[in-house]
């Protein structure tokens, strides 16, 4: 009988596989349930291959609140490679500000017109309706700790902002951040939902509430 040649999974492997699928279904069930917020941190899972590391809930809230205060009433906020902050800002639904997210990961296109595809390798390849100096504050978190990445992201930031910049990157980038964006290190220390090997810091070019 040809069926004898079909490989069979061991009962242990089969049970583990079934458990995996059950957990996956439960996770998806939670996501599609009434109580799920599509803007919650973790609703889109980290992709380490894209150098994605989400902020802790507390850090994202702190940065979002700072951005709202800095932008002022009716302000416009741009989140460049900082989806956790964007998500926290969207949780403050109804507040008097507007926000958009510039991000390479197209999974964030679920956020509709506020999503703008962004590749730091082409820093000024932006939609025509994204006018220069049209944002009251830009918060950015360049995906890589390299001068090239920072320098190119800085071009985007300087194009978008009216003046205020909030940068999150490694502590080792302090001198380069000052060089390319004129920002100074803040006392506030951002944390991630998973611990990073590199020390992480915030930088600003204005008097912020993060000191």
TrEMBL record:
What organism does the UniProt record list as the source?
A: Geococcyx californianus (Greater roadrunner)
Keywords of the record, alphabetical order, are: Cytoplasm, Methyltransferase, Transferase
Which processes are annotated in GO (biological process)? methylation
One GO MF term: protein-lysine N-methyltransferase activity
**What are the top taxonomic ranks of the organism?**
Eukaryota, Metazoa, Chordata, Craniata, Vertebrata
- Tell where it localizes: Cytoplasm
Q: What is this protein called?
A: EFMT1 methyltransferase
Grouped into one coarse class, the protein's main location is cytoplasm
Question: Which InterPro entries has this protein been placed in?
Answer: DNA_methylase_N6_adenine_CS, Efm5/EEF1AKMT1, Mlase_EEF1AKMT1/ZCCHC4, SAM-dependent_MTases_sf
Catalytic activity of the protein: L-lysyl-[protein] + 3 S-adenosyl-L-methionine = N(6),N(6),N(6)-trimethyl-L-lysyl-[protein] + 3 S-adenosyl-L-homocysteine + 3 H(+)
């Amino acid at each position: 009988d040809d069926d004898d040649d079909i490989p069979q999974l061991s009962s242990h492997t089969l049970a583990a596989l079934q458990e995996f699928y059950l957990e996956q279904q439960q996770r998806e069930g939670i996501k599609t349930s009434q109580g799920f917020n599509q803007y919650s941190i973790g609703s889109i899972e980290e992709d380490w291959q894209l150098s994605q590391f989400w902020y802790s809930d507390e850090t994202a809230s702190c940065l979002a609140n700072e951005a709202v205060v800095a932008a002022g009433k009716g302000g416009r906020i741009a989140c460049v490679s900082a989806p956790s902050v964007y998500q926290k800002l969207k949780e403050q639904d109804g507040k008097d500000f507007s926000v958009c997210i510039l991000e390479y990961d197209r999974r964030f296109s679920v956020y509709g017109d506020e999503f703008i595809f962004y590749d730091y390798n082409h820093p000024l390849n932006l939609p025509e309706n994204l006018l220069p100096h049209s944002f009251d504050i830009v918060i950015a978190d360049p995906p890589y700790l390299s001068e090239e990445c920072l320098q190119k992201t800085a071009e985007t930031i300087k194009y978008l902002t009216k003046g205020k910049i909030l940068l999150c990157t490694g502590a080792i980038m302090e001198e380069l951040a000052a060089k390319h964006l004129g920002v100074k290190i803040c006392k506030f220390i951002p944390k991630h939902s998973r611990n990073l090997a590199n020390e992480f810091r915030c930088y600003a070019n204005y008097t912020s509430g993060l000191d």
